[in-house]
Design a protein that fits this description.
The structure holds 2 protein chains of 2 kinds. By secondary structure, chain A is an alpha/beta fold. Among the domains of chain A are: 333-397, Luciferase, Domain 3 (Luciferase, domain 3, Roll), CATH 2.30.38; 400-497, ANL, C-terminal domain (GMP Synthetase, Chain A, domain 3, 2-Layer Sandwich), CATH 3.30.300.30. Chain A contains 16 helices and 26 strands. In chain A, the strands form 8 sheets. In chain A, strands 10-9-11-12-13-14-15 form a 7-stranded mixed β-sheet, sandwiched between helices. In chain A, strands 4-3-5-6 form a 4-stranded parallel β-sheet, with helices on both faces. Chain A has a 4-stranded antiparallel β-sheet with strand order 16-17-20-21. In chain A, strand 22 (401-403) and strand 23 (406-408) form a beta hairpin. Chain B contains no helices and 12 strands. Classes of the chains: A alpha/beta, B mainly beta. Chains A and B meet through helix 1, helix 7, helix 8, strand 12 and strand 13 of A and strand 9 of B.
Chain lengths: 503, 101
């Protein structure tokens, strides 16, 4: 197995369709095959053992990913926003390698031992670089070969490289995407950064379904909206912070996006109020909420458009609450929520989420497999399921607040705070307490008229147990997010841990 | 007789058809064009599909049996048609999943 099978099938059936870029002048499936063959030839003629990509979303992504797969070397997208020394360390770990870079990358990575550097534009003009293009269908078919290395945004220590083999990614696509199912007018706007698993999954899925990829190099909500309008975009995948910013921008512009038929969001906690407003601002769109991890080849659970419409229209609060769930497992994927002693948690009870399936890699380049003997991967996310099998993801285990021996999910407290009309965003986290071990602190962003701290406490008391009432309420102007939209509660923990209790 | 497991790839010996196993494990009499299929890349093509097994395969389509014991995906199309033992495999029409990326 090789992800090149996906491109080969697509080019065979839809080779004249534009695969990536504008309808006028983009790369067709056939030309993507040609460029990948040329780059594969170049990689084989070099000593490269990896292809490092240090660039923004663009046509260079699928050329690099498929070219690397064709040559049999892993594709390693790295975060171009990192500081120079960190960037160089990651490139050094991948050397000997061919690095495909944006115009500033050549200088930033110059002098790394064993790194051959080629700029994006030079690669576009001459992907073979003087080498002989690879022959058709001569890619290695070893299903166990490494296809992609992704540095995860680990919470501590140096970043770990999650390793995805060809069989994981191909299983994911065969299990979730119907071949050539996209209409010729469909287009997917690709705004997530290349070093995110969603970028890898999106490229494979769009190519296989025959949907044109419209890359957005630098995300800001207005550029995103403008590109959707100018390119007739029909499909989008967003991390929650992007969705929230787009919703705000559409409200400001007084616009709704009629051309969009499908919006998928995931990769972090999304706020129900944002989703409810988004349903109005994308009137023709079906919404999907996906839950997945780098180590699971992206999505393992999804709540699709039918569920969204059904739960949004429901008067039953329990059913309406499913709007903040991650839906149910994909076919072929099993989810298990387990208590601390390893037994299966009952419906409604919180525990740790474990995942199993063909697409679940659960492996790191250094350190090997993290799967247990039965193939289960421990996500380190906490969550619960309901009687119907819907999964709620509460957040990282590390973020759980343990007050007087009672485990509390910060997400649950945040969800309640966000129901207050003046609360724009909220973060709950634990701070040390002599009496309780930890107690609940919250940071909130509010609009005027701002509520009093005690109003917010009363809200939590009325909706949850009194143990969840925040001891501390801080009013802040912004909350720390990483660049793919994950709330960094640990930064808040550190910032407020040493202060004397206030508010 | 071939050994099925998810991800295993088989080719026809009488046409260009290739498939990959999506579902099913264990030994199976998988045929294409009336002739037993073999591991992909392990044989040269010779002969033609038999007349009663030449309705062809379609690229990217999923084929399965009535009992849903196996499912294969066509990765290369050809003029032969697929069968399990004496029973032709049919195109599976599945409800599409919501796109998640």
């Amino acid at each position: 197995m090789n992800v090149m099978m996906l491109l080969e099938m697509a080019a065979t059936a839809m080779g004249d369709r534009v695969a990536v870029g504008p309808l006028d002048g983009g790369l067709t499936g056939d030309s993507l095959m040609g460029d990948a063959a040329a780059l594969a030839g170049r990689l084989r003629a070099s000593k490269a053992e990896h292809l490092v990509l240090c660039d923004e979303p663009g046509a260079v992504l699928p050329v690099s990913m498929f070219g690397a797969a064709w040559a049999g070397v892993p594709y390693v997208p790295i975060n171009y926003r990192l500081a120079d020394d960190e960037l160089r360390r990651l490139a050094d770990r991948a050397a000997p390698a061919l690095a495909v870079v944006d115009p500033s990358g050549a200088e930033r990575l110059a002098g790394v031992d064993g790194l051959e550097i080629v700029e994006r534009d030079a690669l576009r003009d001459d992907p073979a670089g003087g080498a002989q293009p690879a022959d058709l269908s001569d890619w290695p078919m070893d299903a166990d070969a490494a296809a992609v290395l992704l540095y995860t945004s680990g919470t501590s220590g140096p970043p770990k490289a999650a390793l995805l083999r060809h069989r994981h990614l191909v299983s994911y696509v065969f299990g979730t995407v119907e071949f050539a199912s996209a209409g010729p007018d469909e287009a997917h706007i690709m705004a997530v950064p290349p070093y995110h698993i969603a970028s890898v999954a999106a490229q494979l899925s769009q190519v296989y379904s025959g949907r044109r990829i419209v890359p957005l190099p630098k995300f800001d909500p207005d550029s995103w909206i403008d590109l959707v309008l100018s390119q007739g975009v029909t499909h989008a995948m967003l991390v929650p912070t992007m969705l929230a910013r787009i919703v705000d921008a559409l409200d400001r512009r007084g616009e709704a996006l009629e051309s969009v038929r499908f919006v998928s969001y995931g990769g972090g906690k999304s706020h129900r109020a944002v989703v409810e407003r988004a349903l109005e601002l994308f009137p023709a769109a079906g919404f999907s909420h996906a839950y997945g991890l780098t180590e699971t080849s992206s999505t393992v659970c999804v709540m699709g458009p039918d569920d969204h419409r059904r739960w949004a229209a429901s008067d039953d609060p329990d059913e309406r609450a499913r709007l903040s769930s991650a839906g149910r497992p994909l076919p072929g994927v099993e989810i298990s929520v387990r208590c601390g002693d390893g037994t299966e948690a009952e419906a409604g009870a919180a525990g740790e989420i474990w995942v199993r399936g063909e697409q679940v890699a659960g492996e790191y380049a250094e350190g090997g497999s993290a799967l247990d003997d039965d193939g289960w991967f421990r996500t380190r996310d906490s969550g619960h399921t309901d009687d119907a099998g819907y999964l709620w993801v509460h957040g990282r285990n590390d973020d759980i607040i343990i007050r007087g021996g009672e485990n509390m999910s910060p997400g649950e407290i945040e969800d309640v705070l966000l129901t207050h009309p003046a609360v724009v965003d909220a973060a709950a986290f634990g701070v040390p307490s002599r009496e309780w071990g930890e107690e609940v602190a919250v940071c909130v962003i509010t609009r005027s008229p701002a509520p009093a701290a005690d109003d917010l406490r009363e809200l939590v008391r009325a909706r949850l147990r009194s143990s969840r009432v925040p001891a501390r309420v801080e009013f802040v102007d912004e909350l720390p997010y990483n660049d793919t939209g994950k709330l960094l509660r640990r930064e808040l923990r550190q910032r407020f841990a040493s202060d004397s209790p206030g508010g | 007789m071939v050994e099925l497991r998810p991800g295993a790839r088989f080719q026809s010996t009488v046409c260009a058809t290739e498939v990959i196993v999506v579902k099913g494990t264990g030994p199976a009499e998988l045929t294409c064009g009336g002739a037993p299929m073999v591991a992909a890349g392990s044989a040269e093509r010779s002969g033609e599909p038999s007349a009663d097994a030449s309705e062809g395969t379609l690229l990217g389509k999923r084929y399965g049996d009535q009992d849903e014991t196996i499912e294969v995906l066509c990765t290369k199309a050809g003029p032969g048609s697929l069968a399990l033992g004496d029973v032709p495999l049919t195109v599976k029409v599945t409800k599409p999943l919501p796109a998640s990326d």
